[in-house]
Amino acid sequence: MTPAAGSRAPDFTARNQHGEQVRLSDYAGRSDVVLVFYPYAFSGVCTSELAALRDRPDLLAAAEFLAISCDPMFTLRAYADAQKLEFGLLTDFWPHGAIASSYGVFDAERGCALRGTFVVDQAGIVRWSVVNPIPEARNLDDYARALATLGHDLG
């Protein structure tokens, strides 16, 4: 079940593309967080979405963006290097899909995350979310509008 706006975001710990532990609750009181679940590193739609995000410094400056897939950490490192992605890419590889499942966006038949996005405020509360079908890219302007409701000026 997808956490509704106004509910507490499920906490998690995962490794990023550099092998560092990242815990959602560590951002409490420091930064709003945007969780961007995506199906597969190196796939066409995922690559275009994350490259578009990479090319939006206004968004990246407004909140901490954490992109999450079920790919292994070393795949995410190669992907980040190849695409010049400097925001966090988190692995949900093992236990496979546990983070995506806690957010209601794990496709068990395909073994990957759906395109779910969750804006989590500094108090750890989900303020906005959207879930798109796997082949459908998200609109980054929706992120900007959601972050604007938290007081971020994104023009």
UniProtKB/TrEMBL annotation:
UniProt-listed InterPro entries: AhpC/TSA, Peroxiredoxin_AhpC-typ, Thioredoxin-like_sf, Thioredoxin_domain, Tpx_Peroxidase_subfamily
A GO MF term: peroxidase activity
Catalytic activity, EC: 1.11.1.29
Coiled-coil residues: none
This protein's UniProt keywords: Antioxidant, Oxidoreductase, Peroxidase, Redox-active center
Keyword Oxidoreductase: yes
Protein origin, superkingdom: Bacteria
Reaction(s) catalysed by this chain's protein: [mycoredoxin]-L-dithiol + a hydroperoxide = [mycoredoxin]-L-disulfide + an alcohol + H2O
Protein name: Alkyl hydroperoxide reductase E
